[in-house]
Design goal:
This protein has about 375 residues and is an alpha/beta fold. The protein folds into two domains: about 220 residues, Rossmann fold (3-Layer(aba) Sandwich); about 150 residues, Rossmann fold (3-Layer(aba) Sandwich), CATH 3.40.50. Strands 2-1-3-4-5-9 form a six-stranded parallel beta sheet. Strands 11-10-12-13-15 form a five-stranded parallel beta sheet. It starts with 6 loop residues before the first helix and ends with a helix.
Length: about 375
C-alpha cells in the first residue's frame, strides 16, 4: 500500500501537516465536509498537546491511502474550538474520533460527548487515549458513549484492570512501595462491556519526528559507536517519578568504567546525534511505561535497554525480550551485568537493533496503521 511513499514525499507530507496545524490554530475552525460526494465523513476532535498529536499525525500522513482505500474524507478541529463553534456547522459525520486530556472532569466529558452525539446522530464514536499510563481511568464515564476505545499500550492481562493500586497506576504502586512513599489506594472501575471495545493503537512510532524518518533508510543506522550508555533523561516530577529516574541516573554514574551521558537539557538534534553514536540507550519508564526515547533509540541504531515490558500489549511491538530490546529489573539492579555483556558482544546487540528497526520500518511502509485501525475506517 505505502510502497509509493519515498523519503522525499514523506518529508513533504510532514511539511504540509505542519502548515495545516498552524493554520488551524489561527483560524479556530475547519473546512466543512464536502456534501456533494458519496465519501464517508471522518471527523477528528483533537488535543493540541505534542503527546496527543502523535495519534493524529498518521491520519494526515496516510490521508491519500486512507481516502482511496475506505472512500473517506477527513477533517479535524481542536477540542476547544469544536465546543466554541459547534453551532456554525452541521457536522453529521459517519465516524468521530475524539481526544481529551486525562484530567478532564466527568461533567465536561459528558457534556462534550452529548454534544458530539447530538451533532453526529448515527456516527461511530471512537475515543483516542493518548495518556502515558496503562490505566483506563475514563472507562466508566465513556462506556455509554463510545463504540471503540483506542489506547497506545494496554495490559496483556486484561484482568489487571479494575484492581486497586497505591497511587493511580501500576507504576506509582511499584515505585511508591520501593521508595516508601505513602499514597492512597485507587481503583478505576471498568464496565462489563468496556474491554470488548478496547483496541491497541499506534504509539510514538507515528510521531511526526519518527514516522517520516522510517522512509529514509531501509535498515538501522550502523555508524561508529563512541558512547557506551546514553541516559539523558528528565528527572524532575512527581516524587515516585523523580526517585525512580534519579536511581537510574545514579546507577549509570557509578559505572565509571563506561563512557556514559546522563545530564539533560540539550537540543533535540544533538540528542539524536548522540543516540546514533551510542551502543546502548537506557530508557527508564516515564509516567507510563513507553517513552519517545524507546523509538528514537531504535531509529538511531542504539540498543534499547529498559525495565521489563512483559506485561504490556503494544503494536508494533518493539518490546520482545532479547529480540527487539533488552529487559532489566524495575529496580535497575541488573544493569551492570547487562551492559557488560552487550558492550562486549556488539554483534549480538546488532541483531537486536536490526530486529527492532525492521519492526518499525515494516509497520510504517507496509500499511501497518491502516490495518491496525481498519475497524475504525471500515
Amino acid at each position: 500500500m505505502s510502497s509509493s511513499i519515498d523519503y522525499l514525499s514523506a518529508i513533504k507530507r510532514k511539511i504540509l501537516w505542519k502548515f495545516h496545524r498552524r493554520l488551524q490554530y489561527r483560524l479556530k475552525h475547519f473546512r466543512p465536509f464536502d456534501n456533494y460526494t458519496n465519501k464517508k465523513k471522518l471527523l477528528i476532535i483533537s488535543e493540541p498537546r505534542k503527546v496527543s498529536q502523535s495519534q493524529i499525525f498518521p491520519f494526515y500522513f496516510y490521508y491519500k491511502e486512507i481516502a482511496a482505500e475506505y472512500n473517506l474524507q477527513i477533517r479535524e478541529i481542536l477540542n476547544c474550538h469544536y465546543q466554541m463553534n459547534s453551532d456554525r456547522y452541521k457536522f453529521d459525520a459517519d465516524i468521530v474520533c475524539v481526544q481529551t486530556w486525562f484530567d478532564v472532569s466527568e461533567k465536561k466529558l459528558r457534556d462534550l460527548f452529548s454534544l458530539i452525539l447530538k451533532k453526529n446522530k448515527n456516527a461511530k464514536i471512537v475515543y483516542l487515549d493518548s495518556f502515558s499510563p496503562l490505566d483506563l481511568r475514563l472507562a466508566s464515564v465513556l462506556n455509554d458513549y463510545i463504540d471503540i476505545y483506542i489506547k497506545k499500550h494496554i495490559f496483556k492481562d486484561r484482568s489487571q484492570y479494575g484492581k486497586y493500586t497505591q497511587g493511580d497506576t501500576n507504576l506509582t504502586d511499584y515505585y511508591g512501595k520501593l521508595f516508601n512513599i505513602k499514597q492512597p489506594n485507587i481503583v478505576f472501575k471498568i464496565p462489563d462491556t468496556f474491554l470488548d471495545k478496547l483496541l491497541v493503537g499506534p504509539g510514538f512510532v507515528t510521531d511526526p519526528n519518527i514516522l517520516p524518518y522510517l522512509f529514509g533508510t531501509p535498515s538501522a543506522p550502523n555508524g561508529l559507536k563512541t558512547i557506551d550508555i546514553h541516559n539523558r533523561i528528565t528527572t524532575a516530577g512527581s516524587e515516585w517519578y523523580q526517585k525512580m529516574r534519579e536511581l537510574s541516573v545514579d546507577v549509570i554514574k557509578n559505572m565509571k568504567e563506561y563512557n556514559s551521558l546522563t545530564s539533560s537539557g540539550i537540543k533535540y538534534r544533538k540528542f539524536i546525534r548522540e543516540l546514533r553514536s551510542s551502543k546502548i540507550c537506557l530508557s527508564p519508564f516515564g509516567y507510563g511505561e513507553v517513552c519517545w526515547r524507546d523509538y528514537e533509540a531504535v531509529c538511531c541504531g542504539s540498543l534499547l535497554m529498559k525495565p521489563d515490558m512483559s506485561h504490556v500489549d503494544s503494536y508494533p511491538d518493539i518490546f520482545l525480550p532479547y529480540k527487539t530490546y533488552i529487559p532489566i529489573k524495575w529496580d535497575f539492579s541488573d544493569i551492570g551485568e547487562k551492559v557488560s555483556y552487550y558492550t562486549k558482544n556488539m554483534d549480538e546487540a546488532g541483531k537486536v537493533i536490526k530486529n527492532a528497526y525492521n519492526t518499525l520500518h515494516e509497520y510504517a511502509t507496509c500499511g501497518g496503521f491502516m490495518k491496525q485501525l481498519s475497524c475504525v475506517f471500515g
